[in-house]
Write a structure and sequence with these properties.
It is built from twelve helices and eight strands. It has about 280 residues and is α/β, with parallel strands linked by helices.
Length: about 280
């Protein structure tokens, strides 16, 4: 499948007036999977999923959350410091796409957005969750040295912030992406305005309320994590797996922060198997 020709664009406006760029890929009548990217990323993070055999069986929906990619980038911090806005944004994507019972796949900060959604809307209507290198923990010991590079990307000095973006991207991978892939990542990461990078400081997804919800989840949950992750340590996923009664943990020996990219063939196989199991209840 060629990503340049296989996309059905969706344009969405949220309740607070933010234009969201979304993309609909693959088998339009297949079980639905919605992907939520990470900080300083965009829907292109998932190219090894939507441009893969997954698209033959499943309907794959991606989007750029506010401030990122092709979506609107208002610089007012009030657009970014309220978890409910991210929950409502994801719900707007789901409504516009007309999904029935999707799996939500979130990577890194994308798992916070899924947490926001669960806090506001619950898990009813979801087939399952795939949390990739999740960040839902209040424990600083669950975070590795690579997370400091993300903080550097928010520095007020322009040159320092650009250096932070480059260092953070490199910290995400054990085996660095090909040159053209890394160049693409650098472009879309740097396209997030500095004012927006500095607006992401909320911690609502780490609350005791969320942990209580996680302990009561009754939908299947797959947690995927690279053992070499230096941004979010694998201990976080082990802790979360023990908390969620329906969770299973898959650890990737040759991956850092992005197992869906670094070991994409294995990740896609596991996601396909997980989606096939959960869609049986649709």
């Amino acid at each position: 499948m060629n990503p340049s020709t296989g996309c059905r664009p969706l344009k969405i406006t949220t309740a607070d007036g933010v234009g969201i760029s979304a993309q609909d890929w693959g088998n339009a009548s297949g079980p639905e999977i919605i992907f939520v990217h990470g900080m300083l990323q965009c829907h292109l993070s998932w190219s090894k999923q939507f441009d893969s055999p997954l698209a033959l069986k499943f309907r794959l929906i991606t989007y750029d959350f506010r401030g990122h990619g092709g979506s609107d980038k208002p610089v007012d911090p009030n657009y970014y410091n309220d978890s409910a806005k991210f929950a409502e944004e994801l719900r707007a994507v789901m409504d516009a796409a007309g999904v029935r019972r999707p799996i939500l796949v979130g990577w890194s900060f994308g798992t916070r957005i899924i947490a926001d959604y669960l806090l506001k809307f619950g898990s009813a209507g979801l087939a399952g969750l795939n949390l990739v290198a999740p960040v839902m923990s209040p424990n600083p010991e669950h975070f590795g040295p690579g997370i400091k590079k993300l903080a550097k990307s928010r520095d007020a000095d322009f040159a320092t912030s650009i250096s932070g973006i480059k260092e953070f991207l490199r910290a995400c991978f054990v085996n660095q992406p090909a040159r053209d892939e890394m160049e693409t990542m650098l472009v879309y990461s740097a396209s997030v305005p500095l004012e927006i990078r500095r607006s992401f400081g909320r911690s609502a997804s780490d609350t005791e309320t969320l942990q209580a919800l996680m302990r009561s989840l009754d939908v299947p949950v797959l947690i995927s994590h690279g053992l070499e992750d230096q941004v979010i340590l694998p201990e976080l996923s082990r802790w979360l797996t023990a908390m969620i009664p329906t969770a299973e943990l898959s650890l990737y020996q040759e991956s850092g922060h992005a197992p869906f990219f670094e070991e994409s063939a294995r990740f896609n196989r596991e996601l396909e198997a997980f989606a096939a199991r959960t869609s049986q209840g649709s």
